[in-house]
């Protein structure tokens, strides 16, 4: 390795590059009027062999090239070759773009002239940079220390996500997402001002933000327009105790790990939200306070408390750190913020009567901005799939397309892994695609798209592992006495995956392209469709009733009954469905009263 100060043009032509001190161009580029693009300060020479320790005075060397007989194994990336990926997309988040060119090989032969290489490189030379992008972003931020952070094109203008404000009475306030997309930090500043006036815990909570544990020494304050925001990094000190202030916080933390994290980890074999996130929360207040807020809110619902006076304190602390971090140039790359937003979104979903979906906007902005989240493995990938299920809930119950970009999920590892959770995530992704097709506002789903989606759903069902099947199916005495079929599964991912399979079939049946048929044939098709919807709806409910320990399955049952419960015409099934909704509320604290009221009205109208 040797230092090299050379521009691209001189290197391509194998000429000596001379740049006078203080000049912006080398002599040759200045004379020719060309753009002088300086390369990195280090180059690496190809080494064919390295010397080894001598034996009996005889020198030895180890060659670094491979023998012609060396076997190689092709490793596909999500079913795509390297050439199929578009790698010339500008990285607009930091104001630059990177262009990759095909390297010169012996197979190219002498026909590939140096001028061709030069022309290919200089195609996007004006937008390209040859320095470390993160270092450049930090350097630019430091050079603009005295400028406003809200400036188009600068790295510090990465817009923060939409967040939720909540007072002690349970009333919520949501920031306009359009303001956040414009990078309006003052809107987020107003969010905390609203907390100060509405939340009795805020003054003490913000002032003692770093007093939760004596080991936490980093000060997280709202940055001014002239101050650099703090970095959200994990401390290097060795911790001997968990950073919990009292026994009550211990109970909240434990409640999240044991009872709430399985809701998120149902399709993650590594259980990252139940294992890795609590460990990170010991060092990161943004995760710790999100966990405490979610757990506090859930326990208050289970206890039947009408007013939640505790969780807003933790939400305020979490927002304080989150806003400060999103105000930094690299805040959007922090996977801990995405995990915290997902937990806060679950906290927000518990306010069903006043769900403004503010934290959902935050996760949408993060995932759509950083397209690699779903394919980065680790916590990023797990959080991306958890967020996808949250977006599916809104799309299904509000009958609208997905706000999240599904193209970003195509390179995820779940499409070439063979574990049970990956199979479940595949059918979840397919259901999201179906929702995008059937809820398109501009046109109805075409016959060709409908048939293609149905074929994909059937292919998943026929190719899934055999152990995705129920442990036993039959018509025993217990089956005849119960309204719902017994469909006990061997793994929580099987329950959720099979539920989403029936959701796919149910949705496709509801939007059957044959329903556009005119004449008396339409009546027969309509009856077939209604019977198909009822069959799949019964299976969804049966899966949750038969697998009571899978909390996520109860959520899908509630959403499905809200959407298609009107298809149940048997009074016995209707009464059983209302009992299931009561169980959902008792078991999970999920408010299902509005679902029961909605179904009762629809059933009464059908009898009139």
UniProtKB/TrEMBL annotation:
Keywords, ordered alphabetically: Nucleus
Signal peptide as annotated in the record: none
CDD domains the UniProt entry points to: fungal_TF_MHR (cd12148)
Domain (Zn(2)-C6 fungal-type) ranges: 6-36
GO molecular function: DNA-binding transcription factor activity, RNA polymerase II-specific; transcription cis-regulatory region binding; zinc ion binding
GO biological process, one term: positive regulation of transcription by RNA polymerase II
Record field: compositional bias (Polar residues): 149-174
Protein's recorded name: Zn(2)-C6 fungal-type domain-containing protein
Claim: Signal is one of the keywords in the record: no
Origin species: Myriangium duriaei CBS 260.36
